[in-house]
């Protein structure tokens, strides 16, 4: 039985009485944990990094080159780093809030602590919609990949159904610790796929979508773009979507053996993700210009497209597994919390668990079948749900835990900066949602 002695010292109010041997262990979220049921507190430090990186790198990296084409190379990369900084801060606040409130499992628990039942309902609805739409985009991208590597004239709708079946099977693995092995396979596969495309478009000298002309082809990449309002908002939304795994960090830290290691793991994840996005997205856009394909793996065309998607399929499957597992586990925990069935192997436990993963998968499949255009689905998620999940709640969480420090005493510079920053993020989130709504509708 995994346990963290440090947790016992630093959490006196909600002591995580993790014990060794045949005795039961207590967790503030999962209740009594024993050898007779799943161990929901068994994700190590390296496994945490891998899960976080795989949660981030997946669908978003495939949309970055097209976002750079809209915004231009320089504004696009600047926006990418701004999104990285904001979501890194948000990720840090997630860890701090979890350590301060050990009973929190997901972001809706934070909403409930701060704003009561209305806050819980609002954030829970946004979280479920956000991740189910993510799962739908994962199904769509996986179906596009299977269609690319297949020599059969099977329609994408059939492949979407096949992708949904695989997603249901793998996301039904009960603990994130057991999903880590899939992330270890998925992450190098998706990175290999995008590296292959990056090298290929550089060597070929002409992307697949470019017109056939006499003489050498020159990329029409732009330093600064000239998008319309709607195009600009959609592109920025795509960049925010690239960091869409941030709200799921709550679920990951809740299953860590030692939550004290979370800040270092999160910072390592964000550094890796940002470097990969900037380098690969920038290089592919530099060579393809406005003739970038979306998803980007189709940019090289021909055999390279088949090879790259062949490598990418396990990576896309890993992404779909995680983004389906997280909302299903969210619903599952809330349905059985406080019951012995949550951490046991009872028939009720299994029926509820499979019902959650199946329900999420079916809704995600319907979304993927209804909006079968990758860029449109990605920008819709980023514009309408990204700010609500990745920006606003974290600003409110900092204010909730730190606002009292500025009352009745001299306000420190760090408190003033934190307050201004948090309020600014809340306002930015509201503005982003309004702009995204205007641009989409």
Question: What this model shows, in words?
Answer:
This protein is mostly helical and 441 residues long. The chain has one domain (43-387): Hydantoin permease (Orthogonal Bundle). It is built from 16 helices and two strands. The chain has a two-stranded antiparallel ribbon with strand order 1-2. Strand 1 (25-27) and strand 2 form a beta hairpin. Helix 4 packs antiparallel against helix 10. The relative contact order is 0.18.
Which structural traits does this protein have?
441 residues; mainly alpha; Hydantoin permease; two-stranded antiparallel ribbon; 16 helices; 2 strands; 69% helix; globular; disordered N terminus; AA_transpt_TM; Amino acid transporter transmembrane domain-containing protein; transmembrane helix; transmembrane
Compile the SSE list and pairings.
Elements: H1 5-10, E1 25-27, E2 31-33, H2 45-56, H3 60-71, H4 73-100, H5 107-149, H6 156-171, H7 176-204, H8 229-241, H9 249-254, H10 262-288, H11 302-336, H12 347-370, H13 374-384, H14 386-390, H15 392-402, H16 413-440
Antiparallel strand pairs: 1-2
Write a brief caption for the model.
This protein is mainly alpha-helical. The protein is 69% helix and 1% strand.
Number of helices: 16
- Quick one: CATH superfamily? Hydantoin permease
CATH class: Mainly Alpha
Structural class: mainly alpha
What is the number of independent domains? 1
The backbone outline, from C-alpha atoms, is: globular
The CATH topology corresponds to Hydantoin permease
Number of strands: 2
Roughly what percent helix? Answer: 55-70%
Low-confidence stretches: 1-23
Distance between the termini: 52 Å
Q: Mind telling me the C-alpha Rg?
A: 22 Å
The biggest beta sheet, please? 2 strands, antiparallel
What would you say the CATH architecture is?
Answer: Orthogonal Bundle
The helix/strand series, from N terminus to C terminus, equals: HEEHHHHHHHHHHHHHHH
Strand order of the largest sheet: 1-2
């Amino acid at each position: 039985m995994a346990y963290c002695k440090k947790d016992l010292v630093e959490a006196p109010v909600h002591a995580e009485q993790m014990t060794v041997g045949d005795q039961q262990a207590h967790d503030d979220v999962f209740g009594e944990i024993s050898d007779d049921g799943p161990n929901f507190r068994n994700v190590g430090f390296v496994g945490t990094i891998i899960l976080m990186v795989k949660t981030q790198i997946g669908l978003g990296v495939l949309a970055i080159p097209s976002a750079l084409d809209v915004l231009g190379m320089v504004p696009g990369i600047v926006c990418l780093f701004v999104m990285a900084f904001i979501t890194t801060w948000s990720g840090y606040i997630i860890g701090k809030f979890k350590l301060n409130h050990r009973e929190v499992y997901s972001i809706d628990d934070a909403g409930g602590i701060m704003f009561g039942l209305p806050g819980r309902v609002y954030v829970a609805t946004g979280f479920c919609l956000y991740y189910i739409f993510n799962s739908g985009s994962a199904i769509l991208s996986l179906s596009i990949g299977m269609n690319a590597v297949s020599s059969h004239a099977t329609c994408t709708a059939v492949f979407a159904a096949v992708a949904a079946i695989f997603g249901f099977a793998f996301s039904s693995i009960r603990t994130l610790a057991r999903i880590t092995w899939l992330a270890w396979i998925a992450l190098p596969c998706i990175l290999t796929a995008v590296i292959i495309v990056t090298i290929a478009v550089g060597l070929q000298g002409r992307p697949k979508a470019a017109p056939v002309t006499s003489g050498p082809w020159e990329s029409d990449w732009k330093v600064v773009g000239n998008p319309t309002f709607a195009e600009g908002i959609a592109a920025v939304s795509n960049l925010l979507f690239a960091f869409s795994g941030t709200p799921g960090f709550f679920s990951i830290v809740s299953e860590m053996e030692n939550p004290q290691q979370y800040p270092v793991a999160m910072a390592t994840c964000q550094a890796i993700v940002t470097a990969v996005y900037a380098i690969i997205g920038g290089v592919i856009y530099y060579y393809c210009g406005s003739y970038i394909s979306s998803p980007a793996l189709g940019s090289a065309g021909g055999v390279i497209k088949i090879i790259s998607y062949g490598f990418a399929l396990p990576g896309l499957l890993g992404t779909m597994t995680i983004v389906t597992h997280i909302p299903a586990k969210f619903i599952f925990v809330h349905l059985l919390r406080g019951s012995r069935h949550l951490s046991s192997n009872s028939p009720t436990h299994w029926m509820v668990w499979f019902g959650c993963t199946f329900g999420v998968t079916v809704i995600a499949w319907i979304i993927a079948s209804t909006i079968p255009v990758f860029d449109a689905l990605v920008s819709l998620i980023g514009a309408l749900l990204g700010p609500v999940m990745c920006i606003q709640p974290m600003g409110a969480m900092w204010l909730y835990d730190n606002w009292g420090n500025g009352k009745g005493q001299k306000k420190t510079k760090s408190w003033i900066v934190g307050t201004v920053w948090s309020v600014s993020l809340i306002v930015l989130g509201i503005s982003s949602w309004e702009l995204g709504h205007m641009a989409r509708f």
